[in-house]
């Protein structure tokens, strides 16, 4: 928290970069910092919105221009991309507006959308709306959670908030590692030689 107090303006740029890549936990924490008065909530939302929007536009463009070659280079990604594509065919706009909220799908989803038939303009509009909804939701949840901690716990709210943040980060890390292991196993099984009949 002291780093945020000392380098507040730079923290917005960190938010932009972090949300370009992923960032749910980061934005929750930043929302909590905004409740403490260390950041402006409106600027936090603006930079998180921009980072999330630009990140997904980048992955969409990557999928549109180089998706087929990327999948040839990393065949284990095929299974990760196949699920978002099947959902897109069924739900179209609803999927684009909500896939950010499904943990572990964001980057693969925007890459998969680049491989799909959705137009660049349609994705641009839906992505802009979805990034705004995502940024407002996570920043506000962090802010409101900070207010709730203050009311319920008094002077202990900061220590409990940090403990919960660490616990949440541990769960996210464990889920990420598990997801990566599952992708590695899927890639290994795809590349395994077929047994003779």
Pick out the low-confidence regions: none
Count all strands and give the number.
0
Helix content: over 70%
Structural class: mainly alpha
Order of helical and strand elements? HHHHHHHHH
What's the assembly state of these chains? Answer: single chain
Terminal Cα span: 63 Å
Any idea what the shape is?
globular
Q: What is the C-alpha radius of gyration, as a whole number of Å?
A: 19 Å
Q: Output the number of helix runs.
A: 9
Mean pLDDT: 79
Largest sheet descriptor: none
Share of residues in strands: under 5%
- What is the count of structural domains? 1
Describe the structure.
There is one protein chain. The chain has helices spanning 2-6, 8-21, 24-35, 41-73, 77-91, 93-98, 106-115, 120-153, 157-191. Helices cover 83% and strands 0% of the residues. The protein is an all-alpha fold. The model has no long low-confidence stretch (mean pLDDT 79). Helix 3 (24-35) crosses helix 8 (120-153), helix 4 packs across helix 7 (106-115) and helix 4 (41-73) packs across helix 8. The protein has one domain.
What descriptive keywords fit this protein?
197 residues; mainly alpha
Write a concise synopsis of the structure shown.
The chain has helices spanning 2-6, 8-21, 24-35, 41-73, 77-91, 93-98, 106-115, 120-153, 157-191. The chain has 197 residues and is mainly alpha-helical. The chain has one domain (2-143).
Topology of this structure?
Blueprint (H helix, E strand, L loop, with lengths): L1 H5 L1 H14 L2 H12 L5 H33 L3 H15 L1 H6 L7 H10 L4 H34 L3 H35 L6
